[in-house]
Each structure stands twice: as structure tokens, then as C-alpha cells.
Amino acid sequence: MPGGITKAPTLALTDQSAAKDVLCPLCAQSLPCADFLHTKDFSIMIRSSHVAQLSPNEANIFRMMLENRAEGISQSALVTRVYASDGGPAMASECVYMAIANIKRKLKPLKITIQSVKRLYRPQFHA
After folding, report:
1. 116 has which bridge partners?
2. CA-CA distance, 56 to 13, in Å (whole number)?
């Protein structure tokens, strides 16, 4: 697809027949709006004509949540994976917590929420 946008067919939850074309936030080309489009690194996501742009850290955390959406992923596991190479800042847990809060806020227009059950985070796609 143009602009490095890829379709995530396993995440498609709404009726594609009602979808409208949207413009790519990178090149302004018209894109057929599938249920959920994203760049390979999840830094830009498009769903139902809404666009969300995540920072590299937020995109990495959201990607990990998606990879573990069946069982969920804990905040401590996210901290360990995000800062595995250098141990991270002294307040790494708070940094991940703030990134999750930012992800929730940015993805709300896309009708994607982050569910927290028994301290495990799971993304939820709503129609």
C-alpha cells in the first residue's frame, strides 16, 4: 500500500462496505479505508477516517500490547521490554504509565481503548 501503510486484517472488526476513503497523513494520497491501517512501526494509525500519531515509544508499547492482546501484558513486562537494553530511567514505571495514558487519549477517536484487567493491558477495538 502507498506510504508504507499496511493492512492489519486480523484486527478488522467493522463493516468495510460503509468505509470512506481517507487521505494518507504522510503523502495526502487517497487511501481505501479498511477497518484499520497502520505503518509498520504503528507510529501512524488510521481507522474510520480518524488518524492517530504515536511517538516511537508509544508505538512500541502499543505494538507489544497488540502482540499480547489475547492474554494481556503487565506494566512491569512493558517496562522490562521497553528498557531492556539500558535499564531505563529511574522512574521507568511512571514513564510507561504516562505513555499508556497518552496512547489511550490518542486512540480514543479511533474507538480503540486499552482495557486494564487484573493489572494486564489489552487493546479493545469498538465498532
Report:
1. 121
2. 26
What's the predicted TM-score (pTM) here? 0.70
- The pLDDT, as a whole number, for residue 19 is 43
More confident residue, 81 or 25: 81
Q: How confident is the model at residue 49 (pLDDT cuts 50, 70, 90)?
A: confident
Query: Which residue pairs, CB below 8 angstroms and at least 24 apart, start in 40-43?
Result: 40/4, 40/6, 42/66
**Residue 64 domain boundaries:** 56-125
118 and 60 in a single domain? The answer is: yes
Spacing of C-alpha 97 from chain mean position? 15
DSSP 44-89: EEEETTEEEE--HHHHHHHHHHHHTTTT-EEHHHHHHHHTTTT---
- Phi, psi for residue 40 in degrees, rounded to 5: -60, -35
User: Do 113 and 104 meet the contact criterion of CB atoms below 8 Å apart?
Assistant: yes
Write the single-letter amino acid at 50: H
Q: Say how many domains are in the chain.
A: 2
